[in-house]
Amino acid sequence: MKMRVAFLAMLLLPVAASAQAPPSVPRPGGITVAGYGTVRVAVKTVQFTAQARGNVDEASALAAMRAAGVDDPSVGPFGPRISNGTQVLVRGTVRGVTHAKLDRIGEAAAAYVAAHPGVTLDNVVFSPRLDDCLPSEQTARAAALADARRRADAIAALAGVSIDGVASVNENGGCPTMPENSFNGGGGPFDLGTLTSTITVYEYVTFAISPGTASTRRRTL
Fold first, then answer.
1. How many CB atoms lie within 10 A of CB 61?
2. Following CA atoms 101, 106, 112, 115 in sequence, which dihedral angle do they give, to the nearest 10 degrees?
3. What 3 state SS string does 169-186 have?
């Protein structure tokens, strides 16, 4: 009987010791935030596209676009399909963009439709061509990273932790990646009022953290 009691006592000793041990300190995690940066860029060149329906005479349409200041005009099938004869895509390039040039294109389009009964023109799109986008993208990127750090610092101050550095970064946005000769221009947003385009960058950043000082922890939530 005594041997049995001693054996049970030996079995219970590790359990009692582990129950009295202090809890383990959790490993530091991270703070993940989204930063946002944007830059406006003056647009010098735009691509012009529009859908024309009806019996569009190619020669007269090309002449009207050239007279309105559209470079490299073309009239062709709508998208990848062979033309069905009633719907075509007209397109071209406008360099040295000004409000006066865009107004002249609008007036020429209205005059062409008026002179060709049965022809309609809609879905007019001006897409900016950003030939020197990378410096603006880098400026937007720096602003997005700074915004992410500001947000992380605010969270760390409330949570009572310290930021040790960047663990990972994911980016969205930036310069347009669609080819210039794509169906719908591929330049990104274009503000007709200011003749500018906006380069936007989103940075999703995870910051590595460690436990803060005692005074920092007393200020936590």
1. 21
2. -120
3. EEEEECCCCCCCCCCCCC
The answer to whether 47 and 185 have CB atoms below 8 angstroms apart is: yes
Q: Is residue 68 part of a domain?
A: yes
User: What is the full per-residue pLDDT of the chain (221 aa) written as tens digits?
Assistant: 444 434 334 333 443 333 333 333 334 469 999 999 999 999 999 998 999 998 888 999 999 999 999 999 999 876 555 555 578 899 999 999 999 999 999 999 999 999 999 999 888 888 999 888 999 999 999 999 999 999 999 999 999 999 999 999 999 999 987 544 444 445 568 999 999 999 999 999 999 999 976 455 444 44
Distance CA 187, CA 90 (A): 17
Q: 176: domain CATH number?
A: 3.30.110.170
- Domain span at 63: 45-128
